[in-house]
């Protein structure tokens, strides 16, 4: 795909969207103006893309709305299916801005296996590689971390567990887990996590195979909330269902999981031409937290609101646009 001519990836994104029964979301963000009336990006032409899952689309809509309010002529290509099409569009210069995750950059894009638990150090390592190899600028990360975690429903209080080490100390019969197939088989997933906490998989004194139920990721959340068939389920920390179902996220006290800090990524040529993007996206990034993303994601996934509306309403609530 790297060999395709300039412009072809943008067409590919649109064709992929159409092939999935969707359409390009170009132009679907709300028109707005900065509260202070400024136009720091007047005359800039920018293409904003995103991955297709809810959080990616929301971040793309927030970005498109805010930069357009700052005077940019924004083309909205949010919702590209999978990671590959949005990432490749940016690498090819057909998209300018994309929200990414530091763990994704480290593991998926650069095949690194070292576990770096400090979020800032991981961001710096990814930032330096991406600037050197791809002329992409990973701006300072936000305050939310959409990483893997385990959660529990009422079981957390009943069993008095707050950390994964607490889970490891439970009787074998209480160590029951729900996970999806992808997480079960990952090299940085379920089985290595159990080993890290000293409760090896398929071991009568650890986690017997019968204690693990593999199911679709979406089913894990209600199953965990009901504690049936499992006491503990794999979740994403910013998923709206964590808050909606009153799940308790357990502390990864041995720091097994990589940080997946949300980070705005801008093509180097664009950030050089419009350095004010740093400040504008920093204004967004510094406001984003796990709890906020749970709320925003929940408005889409649970309440059925349109991501464009959620993005605009949040920017207005923060008194950033009008």
What characteristics describe this protein?
five-stranded mixed beta sheet, three-stranded antiparallel beta sheet, 322 residues, 43% helix, single chain, 15% strand
Q: How much helix is in the residues?
A: 40-55%
Read across the widest sheet, the strand sequence of neighbours is 7-6-8-5-9
Strand content: 5-15%
Protein structure class: alpha/beta
Largest sheet: 5 strands, mixed
Q: Give the total of beta strands.
A: 10
- The whole-number mean of residue pLDDT values reads 91
Low-confidence stretches: 1-26
Rg over CA atoms, rounded to whole Å, is 21 Å
Order of helices and strands: HEHEHEHHEEHHEHHEHEHEEHHHH
Distance between the termini: 40 Å
Tally of helical runs: 15
Shape: globular
Report on the structure:
With 322 residues, the chain is α/β, with parallel strands linked by helices. The chain has 15 helices and 10 strands. It has helices at residues 8-19, 54-69, 82-91, 102-109, 119-134, 155-158, 164-168, 181-185, 190-196, 217-226, 240-244, 268-273, 276-285, 290-301, 307-317; strands at residues 45-51, 73-80, 97-101, 136-138, 148-152, 177-179, 212-214, 232-236, 248-249, 262-267. Strands 7-6-8-5-9 form a 5-stranded mixed sheet. It has a 3-stranded antiparallel sheet with strand order 3-10-4. A two-stranded parallel sheet has the order 1-2. Helix 2 packs across helix 13 (276-285). The chain starts with 7 loop residues before the first helix and ends in a 5-residue tail after the last helix. The model is unreliable at 1-26 (pLDDT under 50).
